[in-house]
Amino acid sequence: MRRPALVCVVLLLAALLPGGCVGSGAPTSGPRGNSSSVGASAATILAQCGAAPSDWPAEKAAGLEAACHPTLPPLTGTPIPWLDSPYTGPQITPSPTVDLESAYGSCDLSQVRLAFEGWDTQDVLGSVGWVVARTTGVRACLLHGLAKTELLDSGGKILSTGMQGDGPLGPALLQAQLAPPYAAPSDGPLGPQFISGYGYEAVRVSGFCGLASPAATLRVTLEGQTPVMLTVPPLPSLECSAGGNAVLDWPFLSAQSPQPKILPPSWLFTQAEFPAQATVGQAMHFTVALQNHEDLPVSLDPCPIYTMRYALIDSGGSEVGETVSEGTLNCAGIKQIGPQSTLGFEMQLTVPADTPLGDSLVVWWWLGTSDYTAAPPTIKQPISLVAPNS
């Protein structure tokens, strides 16, 4: 079973800003709403670009430089040429399903017992813990959905309430009258391997390092039931993240839950490399890299939607206008990005001919439609504007 992925958008910059990622950690499928919040996030980030304060550690200063002046990772093959293909409507990527509903009824939640089975420190974005479920009923049943998960410190104060991560939605099949001991899943070549009959909820914790009152309890609540207090061991200090404090959790899964064989585009990391200058009245070319760090391929069928937003910044640093466009990647004939691979896509936008040369340009690019508001995954500090033939 795959371990769900967390993408902390604007990875390096988020680690440098106070409070870390937008919303204290953003799942790969973020909230939707008015696109203006993207600009609001960017204004804060842009203010950080420039010379790092003299008292910053070298590693933090290097992170700021890498975020404000990104370079592309090694690509698999040459970048795919630009194709002007505007997005014209919804596209639905089919997901794998297993027909458990017709064979089993839902679990009586009063008969579900929960236990916590330790932190797995192999995840680069934090520590993943496993809440394991079993039923004391006399029949096998299905455990649906996501439990409410809260991380509490040793004094009982809530440190964070879990946000739902991206990945399979279950349900988990619980076999009748399985007895303890519980067991955390072992690691297989494609992620955690579940023991048949138990349900597993992954909980990823990033940050919460060096607290005077450290994390000590997970409070897990199944719908309509009394919360269960699960004591947790200390978070491994070496897994602490500088990118802010966050708790993400996923619906209960089991060995019989639908297992993905190919991942959706939301599992991709995106990075863009922009030029230092753009010419007014002409097309500006740049390259976007889509990185698959997983051991399963990522689907490009249908071709994913992307959004490109650019704005002008006047000499006083104020945003004076914006243009937002949605397009479809030029991936005809390319059905997927292979495991541990990175594909490059050429992009372009035309700077209006009447743009004042005293202004500068800033560009955002992300996978998804324009109403995606978690934060812009790629950003470039203002690009200088020059006249033609200069």
Question: What are the SSEs and their pairings?
Answer:
Layout: H1 11-16, H2 36-46, H3 58-68, E1 112-120, E2 127-135, E3 141-143, E4 148-153, E5 158-161, E6 163-164, E7 172-174, E8 186-188, E9 191-193, E10 199-206, E11 215-221, E12 228-231, E13 246-249, E14 269-273, E15 277-279, E16 283-292, E17 298-299, E18 305-313, E19 319-328, E20 336-337, E21 341-350, E22 360-367, E23 378-379, E24 383-386
Parallel strand pairs: 6-13, 15-24
Antiparallel strand pairs: 1-2, 2-10, 3-7, 4-5, 4-11, 8-9, 10-13, 11-12, 14-16, 16-21, 17-20, 18-19, 18-22, 22-23, 22-24
How would you describe this structure to a colleague?
This protein has 390 residues and is mainly beta. The protein has 2 domains: 36-94 and 263-386, Sandwich (Immunoglobulin-like), CATH 2.60.40.10; 109-249. It is 7% helix and 33% strand. It contains 3 helices and 24 strands. It has helices at residues 11-16, 36-46, 58-68; strands spanning 112-120, 127-135, 141-143, 148-153, 158-161, 163-164, 172-174, 186-188, 191-193, 199-206, 215-221, 228-231, 246-249, 269-273, 277-279, 283-292, 298-299, 305-313, 319-328, 336-337, 341-350, 360-367, 378-379, 383-386. The strands form 7 sheets. Strands 15, 18, 19, 22, 23 and 24 form a 6-stranded mixed β-sheet that branches. A 5-stranded mixed β-sheet has the order 1-2-10-13-6, with no helix packed on it. A 4-stranded antiparallel β-sheet has the order 5-4-11-12, with no helix packed on it. The chain is elongated and about 80 Å long. Mean pLDDT is 75; it is low at 1-48 and 94-98.
